[in-house]
Amino acid sequence: MTPTHSDGGPAAPSSGSAAVSDLNLLRTFLVVYRSGSFTAAAGLLGLSQPTVTAQIRSLERQTGRELFARLPRGVAPTPVAHDLAARVAGPMDALAAAAGHDEASPEERAAPVHLAGPAELLCTRVLPVLAPLAAEGVRLRIVPGLTDPLLEELRAGRHDLVVATFRPRGRTLLSVPLMDEEFVLVAAPAWAAVVGDRVAREGPAALRTVPLVAYAEDVPLARRYWRHVFGTRLSRSAAVTVPDLRGVLAAVASGAGFSVLPRYLCEAELASGALVPLHDPEDPPINTGYLVQRPGRPDNPDVTRVRDLLVDAGRGW
To answer: Looking at residues 296-303, what average pLDDT do you find?
Structure first.
C-alpha cells in the first residue's frame, strides 16, 4: 500500500485512509525525522516527550503505517517515513518561513546519518575519516553488527549506509566497492619462534601444537585461509573465541596462540614486532568490502556527503 498525494494538504496518507489535516502532527513528524529521537524532538519543540510520542502515534494511525522503528537509543525512519518526509519537508519549511519561523536549529534542519558495519572496521577505518564532520554539524549514529542482519535493517529503513563484508544480491540495494582486506596468518614472537619457517614447508601440520584463536566457533577466517592457501579443509576447533576481532588481536598479541586477521587491523602490531606473520603466500586471501545503500537519492544531503567521503578514503585503504 503506497502513500498517495492528497488534495488538501502537504501530506498524503496511505490509500484508503483519511487525509492528514493537522499540521502540528506533520511538524512534529519532521522534527523527529530530522533529530532521530523523540526526546530530542521534544526539546526542540518545547513539548513533553509523551506528547511527541502521542502525536507520532496519532499520525501513524491516520496514515495506517509505521513511521519509526524504536531503537535502544532514538528511532530510525521507516521507508514510509522517508517517503512522507520527502513530500512534506518542502511545503512545511516554506510555510514556516512564510510565518516567520524559519530559524530552526541545526539539529532540527539536519537528520542524523545512520551508518552501520563491522565494529572493527568502523573503529579502525571509518570513524577516523568521519570524525571531522562532527565539528561541521554532521550528526552521525553508528551501529556495529554483522552484515546479514544489517542489510535487512537497511532494507527496512533503519540505516542510511552499511559497510558490508560482501556484495548484497538482487537489485533492492546499491553497493560500491570500498576496500580490499588481505588476511594474514599471525602469532606472537614466542609462538613464531616455535613454528619458525615450517608453515611454508609443512603446511598446516606446522601449527598442530599452537592454539587457534578466533572470533566465532566456526572459525570462518581460518577456514577461508586454509581453503585458499593450503587447499585443504580446516579440521580443528578454536582454543579461544572472542566475538570481536580487536579482542582476537589482543589475545594473539598476548601469546594465546595464532589466528588469521585482516592486515589493516594488525598492521601496527606487525610493524612493531608485537605480531609476526607465520606465512607469506604468493596469493593471500583477499575480501572486498562494500558500501551499501538503498536505491534513489537520499533526502538527507549529509548521507551523500558521508558516502562520498568514505568512497574517496577507500581508494587509499
So the answer is: 80
* CB within 8 Å of 187: residues ≥ 6 apart: 195, 210, 252, 257, 258, 259, 275, 276, 278
Tens of pLDDT, residues 218-242:
999 999 999 999 999 999 999 999 9
pLDDT band for 110, please (50, 70, 90 cuts). Answer: low
Q: What domains can you pick out in the chain, each with its CATH number?
A: 23-109 (1.10.10.10), 113-179+288-314 (3.40.190.10), 180-287 (3.40.190.10)
Amino acid in the structure at residue 58: S
Does residue 85 have a pLDDT over 50? Answer: yes
A 10 A CB-CB count for 279 gives 21
| Ramachandran area for residue 216 (φ above 0: left; ψ -120 to 50: alpha; else beta) | beta
Cell, residue 139: 550528526
Residue type, 190: A
For residue 91, the model assigns a pLDDT of 86
C-alpha–C-alpha distance, residues 297 and 102, integer Å? 25
183 touches 177 (CB < 8 A):
no
Mean pLDDT value across residues 15-24: 57
Shortest CA distance to 150 belongs to which of 127, 122, 123, 178? 122
From residue 208, give the alpha-carbon distance in Å to each of 130, 250, 252, 258: 42, 21, 16, 11
